[in-house]
Write a structure and sequence with these properties.
Layout lengths: L10 E4 L5 H15 L19 E5 L5 E12 L3 E10 L8 H19 L4 E9 L3 H9 L3 E12 L15 E5 L5 H12 L10 H9 L3 E11 L2 E11 L8 E9 L8 H15 L4 E8 L2 H9 L4 E2 L3 E9 L1
Parallel strand pairs: 4-5, 10-11
Antiparallel strand pairs: 1-2, 2-3, 3-4, 5-13, 6-11, 6-12, 6-13, 7-8, 8-9, 9-10
Length: 320
């Protein structure tokens, strides 16, 4: 597919194994010079990068100036999901190279979907939310923002890190125990059912998540309305290099749809933070993966979390 890159200022060729070190260096240079979050994934991390869908562009002196990589990240019954990655060295920008690499990547995705006999293709690209130029380029070819990712941290230093959780009429909160495994899994799966990118968690995968050495059932909390489980916050211990005692991490927080917007999420986090503080941890954290970033920020900042840098996924679905 090198012939249809339609960009003639560089010399284009399929990516070869010998190119990998240079591509990795280019990825690092792009992220460093742009001061952006590292979102470029060098194809060297893949055992079989499929050279037909990975290309490099060199200037007349042989310097690597750009690359493009389109690879399948998921296959559904009627759709192939293809992740688009690529980059242009800052000194070669403003020449339309990035747009042409992106166009090539979409055509590569279409070819892969057709080869897989799937009628639809979803193209995805993940970028730093502050990279407005990159985001505008994606939007011009129809890839619109659909999902946001960030970590949110509550540093306990100098703060009242485990205030008394709120009392809620008709709602009670209990520590997690093994008997609540299936009810909490059911709540999680119901809570994410409306999210097209979230897959149902099997009984086996749920059990495996609790067998991890970092999992902490004693710091995890479950919300009840009467005898019905309506929400949960399932927690673990992480040990960042800049933390002496570690931080409590909320791996999963879920509330049944009909019980949302009632403060239950905040209460579950408050109970979790009380457990973290009692255990002598340095803070609390959670990873946000959501189609509605403003909702997530509103819920989590209300109990003291602050967001870090944000990544955004742009995507477009195409009939092929």
């Amino acid at each position: 597919m090198v012939d249809d890159i339609y960009e003639d200022s560089l010399n284009w060729s399929p990516m070869a194994v010998d190119d990998h070190d240079e591509v990795e260096e280019l990825c690092q240079a792009i992220d460093y010079l742009d001061g952006a979050l590292a979102t470029h994934e060098c194809p060297i991390t893949w055992d079989n990068p499929a050279s037909s869908y990975a290309i490099v562009g060199r200037d007349p002196r042989g310097m690597l100036a750009a690359y493009g990589w389109a690879h399948i990240c998921n296959v559904h019954d009627t759709r192939v999901d293809v992740m688009l990655d690529g980059g242009v060295h800052p000194s070669f920008r403003h020449r339309g190279i990035g747009r042409r690499v992106l166009d090539w990547s979409i055509r590569a995705g279409i070819s892969m979907a057709r080869s897989a006999n799937k009628p639809r293709l979803r193209c995805c690209a993940v970028v730093d939310a502050n990279r407005t130029i990159d985001r505008h380029t994606l939007e011009r070819v129809g890839l619109l923002p659909t999902r946001w990712y960030c970590d949110m941290i509550h540093d306990f230093a100098g703060t009242e890190y485990h205030p008394e959780p709120p009392r809620m009429r008709g709602i009670t909160f209990r520590r997690y125990d093994e008997q609540l495994s299936e009810p909490t899994r059911a709540v999680w799966n119901q809570a994410i059912a409306a999210d097209p990118e979230a897959g149902e968690v099997s009984k086996e995968d749920w059990a495996a998540s609790w067998r991890r050495p970092e999992a902490r059932a004693e710091w995890s909390w479950v919300a009840f309305a009467g005898y019905e489980v309506i929400g949960c916050a399932l927690n673990s211990l992480v040990q960042p290099s800049d933390s002496d005692n570690g931080i409590g991490w909320t791996d999963r927080i879920a509330v049944l749809p009909e019980w949302r917007e009632k403060g239950i999420e905040a209460a579950l986090l408050s109970w979790s933070m009380k457990s973290f503080g009692s255990a002598g941890l340095d803070g609390a954290g959670l990873g946000v993966d959501t189609p509605d970033l403003e909702w997530a920020k509103r819920i989590f900042t209300a109990v003291g979390y602050e967001s870090s840098d944000v990544l955004v996924q742009h995507s477009r679905t195409i009939a092929v």
